[in-house]
Design brief:
Layout: H1 2-10, H2 12-57, H3 61-70, H4 76-84, H5 90-117, H6 120-142, H7 145-153
Helix pairs in contact: 1-2, 1-5, 2-4, 2-5, 2-7, 3-5, 3-6, 5-6
Length: 154
């Protein structure tokens, strides 16, 4: 929603960049809130799931987080909190997050800009970015990472 509004107000590119920055800021706040204040509560409540989540993303963190962000399933807030409650490296988690947020934010900001300006080109860019993002997410999911994601869900 914020990307659409920023796109409408600022245009596709700036809307996408500012909304990505806003999403990253929320990600950082949730991650460090979990890491610094509620880690033990989350570990007690979600112990087994947290261990599976950590096992999934502890290696090649940025790539696996990118895959999670590109797939339109799950909760970003829970992902941020779970990662903060584990020993996942913050840098890799943030890198994967920002790379995963950017295509989504550009898609919706260009859609907002296209509607705001009645510009079919910007709406076309939004649709094209959605297709590219979906293809990348599908490729990553079909790769060897799919098995690990399936294990996490069980």
């Amino acid at each position: 929603m914020i990307a659409f509004v920023f796109g409408f107000a600022l245009g596709g590119l700036y809307g996408g960049l500012f909304s990505t920055l806003a999403a990253l800021l929320g990600c950082v706040l949730a991650f460090y809130t979990a890491r610094l204040t509620i880690r033990s509560s989350l570990q007690r409540r979600f112990g087994n799931r947290l261990q599976k989540f950590e096992a999934l993303i502890i290696n090649k963190t940025w790539l696996k987080v990118l895959m999670i962000r590109l797939l339109p399933v799950g909760s970003n807030l829970l992902t941020n909190l779970f990662a903060g409650a584990t020993h996942v490296p913050a840098g890799g988690f943030m890198l994967g997050s920002v790379l995963g947020y950017l295509p989504q934010m550009l898609i919706f900001s260009f859609a907002g800009a296209g509607i705001g300006l009645s510009d079919h080109n910007q709406l076309g860019i939004s649709i094209g970015l959605f297709i590219i993002s979906s293809l990348i997410g599908a490729y990553l999911y079909r790769s060897s990472l799919r098995k690990q994601v399936d294990e996490l869900e069980n």
